[in-house]
Every structure is written in C-alpha cells, then in structure tokens.
Amino acid sequence: MPVQEKLISSEDKVYEYTLTNQSGDLTVKLLNFGATVTHLLFKDTQGVSRDLLLGFDTYEEYLKVRKDGTNPYFGCVVGRTAGRMVNAKFTLNQKEYRLSANEAPNHLHGGAVGFDSKVWESRIISESPACVEFKHLSVDGEEGYPGNFEIKIRYTVTEENELKLDYDGGLTSDNPEDQMTLASLTNHMYFNLSGCELESTVSNHTLHSDCKYVLELGDDLLPTGALLPVDAIQGLDFSKESRMGDNMELLPQKGFDHVFVLKKPEDLNNNLEYAARVKSVKTGISVVMHTTEPSFVLYSSNFLDGTLPAKKSTQPKAGSYQKYGGLCLEGCRYPNAINQPAWQPQVILRKQDRYHQSTIYKFDRN
C-alpha cells in the first residue's frame, strides 16, 4: 500500500507512517512525534536500497536524546522559529517577550520543548500521491511565544521521486484582532547519500549552488545583519560543483553551519527557487532542493561525535554517527530576523496573515 499507518505508542498516541510511490523507488517513514522523517529509502545505481537519512529506529530513542540533552534534531520540524535568537528575547508590538534560553544565553529551534518534541495530530490525505498531514496547535505562551498559532505540514512522496513539504499556518480565530507572533519553521533532516554505510561522512559528497550571498555570522553563529558575497569567505562558493571536504578544510571551523541567501530582504516572494544539488560519487545518488524560503542553512553535523547509534534496521554496518556524518539543507527565513529591522517582515505574522512554505527534495541516480 502507498500509505501505511502503525500505532507505535498507545500511551502517547504516536503513529508511524510509511509512504511509498507507485514505482517503489522512494519510501519515506515518519512519526507524528515532532513531525519527524525517520527513514528515506532510495535505490542506488546498483539497485541497492539505501537509507539516506540519519536518525533512529525507535520512538524511545528520539525521546531519550531529548531527555538527556543530546538532541541533534534528526529529521524533525523545528519552530516556532528555526535557528538561534540572540539573548532569547524580542520586541513585538512594543512589548518585550522572553523565550526559553535552551542554548544559554540564546534561544534555539523553538525552545526546550519546541515543535520537535510535540505529538502532532495526524491523518492520511491521499494514497496517490502518498501524502500525510500533521497538525499542531501552539498555545499562547508556549516557550514564551505570543498568540495561539496553528500549523499544518503535509509530506508527499511523488512519482517523480520527490519528497514535498508544504507548510500552512496562522494565528487562530480566538486571538485578539491585534495579535502578532513569529513564524519561521524548517525540517532538520540529515542526509548521507551513501547511506552512512559506504561512507561514514559526507566529505566526498559534491555540492552545487547558485547562491551569490551568505549571511555574515559572528563567533556566536548569530547573523550580524550583513550579507556577504560567497567568494568573500573561502569555502562557501559552490558556483562550480565542489567536493565538500575540500571546502570544509578552507573554513576556520572546518565545517559548515552557514546561511545561504536565495532572496534578499527586498526581494521576498513565494516562488520556488533552486537552492542546491548534492551528490554521492559512491552511490550515484543525488538530491536537488527547491524552496520558497529566502534562505537555507547548510550544516555538516559538526557536533556529532560517534556516540549516537545508527539505525540497525537499514544501516547495520554504520555503527554510529560520526562528525560530518550528515548534511542538512534547511529552508528557512533568516535566523534571528526579528532582531534585525530590515528582516522583520520575514517572520512577523499578524492575525490576517498566513504562514506558507514549500520545500521539495528530488532524488535521482546516475
């Protein structure tokens, strides 16, 4: 069947969904816990099915990393705002709001118990294409954010071997007419197009992107407010397809945690834009990302250290996840946008507004 539903935890009402396209080329597994993509199986040029995502086999493992403080945000949706917010505070409508400082002194990925740690309502939308929808109501004051905010995300597996993510959200009707809030979500999938077994890192993956600018970051990894040409920083110009490991070596931190600009603040629109193409030379598998978002974060799993186990079901030879073991391509609004006046329109949501995002990952082999 194109869509399968399985109850994982009756106590917590956690379900697992398996989406497969008609050709059987692409299979995606998800949990309604954190709206998390747990597995993504795609055949390589030899016909071998590879799980291209870092993650866990069990719901209990996802719970454990949240309880012990080692959460890498594998495959989950983060919000209300993705990325870091300086000093865990912002001013909106002339009122200061203080958020949970879960990466003290800053706020990260929606807080200590963000969208990634919530059990979302879920339902099957269609069998062809295979599609499920997750919904979460974030109440006023959750992690410090104002207003009751409802968000839905649909995951669709297409016959073109795409995984489509479509977000739709807004402040609910019971909010005051002048209510405002923030919204900037993303999915935190970690890709290894060699399935973590043939290669334990993504250093040999190649990457191409037409982006001409990145956000300048301070030592605290927070944007300074400036946009820099990609060739101003060695290692960030991917206008010619490059081996990722070569570029990482050029960076002071020896890894990626950078925000690439697809749309300047004055050029915002809802058009899908080409973001990047990544390929594994080992498997011949590639992924091309398109998004409506104005930026994407390129992250090379710099903080993994071999302590988190790989999935025994699909990656038994990998053992554990190593530094640089995966690559994130996260479509999002500029991080900390609310604290940069020119960027604020990206993330401020009024009662009459809707939050929309579409991001597509298309898989191929050659």
UniProtKB/TrEMBL annotation:
Catalysed reaction, written as an equation: alpha-D-glucose = beta-D-glucose
Binding residues for beta-D-galactose: 188-190, 257
Record Gene3D superfamilies: 2.70.98.10
Enzyme Commission identifier(s): 5.1.3.3
Record pathway: Carbohydrate metabolism; hexose metabolism
Top enzyme class: isomerase
Alphabetical GO biological process terms: galactose catabolic process via UDP-galactose, Leloir pathway; glucose metabolic process
Keywords carried by this UniProt record: Carbohydrate metabolism, Isomerase
Pfam family, one: Aldose_epim
Listed GO MF terms: aldose 1-epimerase activity; carbohydrate binding
Record-annotated active site: 188, 330
Family label: Belongs to the aldose epimerase family.
Stated name of the protein: Aldose 1-epimerase
